[in-house]
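Title: [Solved] Glutamine synthetase family protein 3D structure

Original question kept below for reference.
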Amino acid sequence: MPANLSLEALKSAVASGDIDTVIVCICDMQGRLQGKRFHAQHFLESAVEETHCCNYLLATDMEMVTVPGYEASSWSRGYGDYIMKPDLATLRLIPWADGTALVMADLYDHHTHELVPHAPRTILKKQVERARAMGFEPMMATELEFFLFEESFAELFDNGYPTPTPMARYNVDYSIMGSTRDEPIMRAIRNGLYGAGIPIECSKGEADAGQEEVNAKYSDAIDTADMHSLIKLGTKQIAQDYGASVTFMAKYDDKRAGSSSHIHQSLWQGGANIFYDADAAYGMSDTMRHYLAGQLAYTRDIAVFLAPYINSYKRFCVGMFAPTKAVWSLDNRTAGYRICGESTKSVRVECRIGGADLNPYLACAALLAAGLEGIERKLEPGAPISGDLYLNDTAPQVPRSLLEAAEALNGSEFLRKAFGDDVVSHYHRAARWEIEEAMRVVTDWERTRGFERA
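Solution (posted by the thread starter after getting help):
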């Protein structure tokens, strides 16, 4: 049975009893897949056209709290419905769940039947449409880092999240022997995701004890964001099946490295990468230079989509491979933007700012919007910066906090033009709520520091 299912193939699999469940899901603001599991026959008879969900799914926080202050969804508006319309091009088998297929859905307003403007997939779709109107096809890939632990999700939850035990006991970056203990789970993750139609290229040990990275082949921007969401879901579910757990937190422990999600980007025309110019310095075409310059110019504006939580900014520390400066460089891992494939047909921009906790639709949309703005304005990136950028005090700084990033988002004329006022206000409210909650909650660190000595 093919991993990517046509509707006819699904009908055949349902008739033969090979598939009995179809998951219909959307991506929420936090990058999680939310939706329903359908009896496969009912999906074919009804939900294949549309189903419905409460519109609070785009107005809650990580705890599913009904957050006050949103214009689009609130108690005063009654928390009505959205239409979930399956995108049948995304229909696929889910090998790690017996007899199960999955399809992504787009969200439509129940009354106007228009796409919900602040839905993450809608935001990315609109920027892709903008790029296509300019003659470009955005191609992207995301790398995903995470930590793999011996304890189960339930065990950690029930015990108040004590410090978990990494599956690997020491830094296993590129180590074949060191990552051997992880391999039964990592092999299942690679094979399961590949069987779901996600072209997994490899996995590897990363830069701290228990840290792993999994990479999928580049694709068009929307497919890449869909795959990213499924990689996170599949990784968590497969680890759970083994009685283990993973975290995609940007920084789960102040003594450990953070987990990133680097985003590789290029623009194509006629099946070729137009970022490449054999006669230009570093093989970078004018289009690529303008695109890169746009991202450099608007890093502060889009930072909240690359680092969406209080915890996200704890990853930006010296000496642990997370960039702290919004500059570009050639094959330099201390820069916010690294040029990969220099002077080759695969030349591309790698944004290294985003953490593994980002929402892939929002992050890819924000980067694309900034790059297209740079092209339209013919911005120039200047010369590449070299050396240890952690020590460069004159280079532009990545925002140091969610508050700083949230206010940059709120004041961004560029993003209000690209995304719309309502969308910017919606995600500014989301960021402010995270800040308000962090200010309200007493942490273990505060109690340890001040219980006796304050």
